[in-house]
Request: fold
Amino acid sequence: MAENYLVIWVDGNIDMANQDCQNTMEQLRAVVNQVNPCKTPEQCVQMLMENQEEISFVISSGAFGQHLVPDIHDMAKLNAIFIFCGNKQRHQVWAQNWPKIKGVHTTIKHICDKLATAIKQYNQDHMFDCCVNTFNFGPILR
Reply:
C-alpha cells in the first residue's frame, strides 16, 4: 500500500452506508492508504488546495469531471485524474483533451490498476531526484 499519496474520490452519489461505496473504498485503500471521498467538486478543489504535502490523484464521476477538470488540471501536486463513469464513450470525447486524465473507466478494478501504475511511474520518475539530492558529491569533486 502506497503512503504519502492522497486519493480524492468525488461523486455526488457517494453514500458510505451503501455496500458498493464501501467496497469501492476498500479496493482503493488496498492501493493507497489515504482516500478521501467528497460529494461536490468544490470539496475536491478545497482538499487539493489545502494539500501541501502529498502527491494527489482524483477519481471523478463523469458528470462532475467535465466541469471539475479545468479547475484542477494545472495544480502542481495533482499527478493524475481518473474518470469513473457508466458511459465511457460519452466522456472519452472531452477527456482526451486533458493530459493528466489517465483514462475513462467503468470499473473500480481498472482504476485501481491504473492508480497503482501511476504511483509506480511517479516513484520511478522521482527516484533519481531523491538520490541526487541526498548524495554527497563533495569527495568526488575534490
In short: Helices lie at 19-29, 41-50, 62-72, 88-95, 108-134, 138-141. The chain has one domain: 5-122. The CA atoms of residues 30 and 118 lie 15 Å apart. The first helix runs from residue 19 to 29.
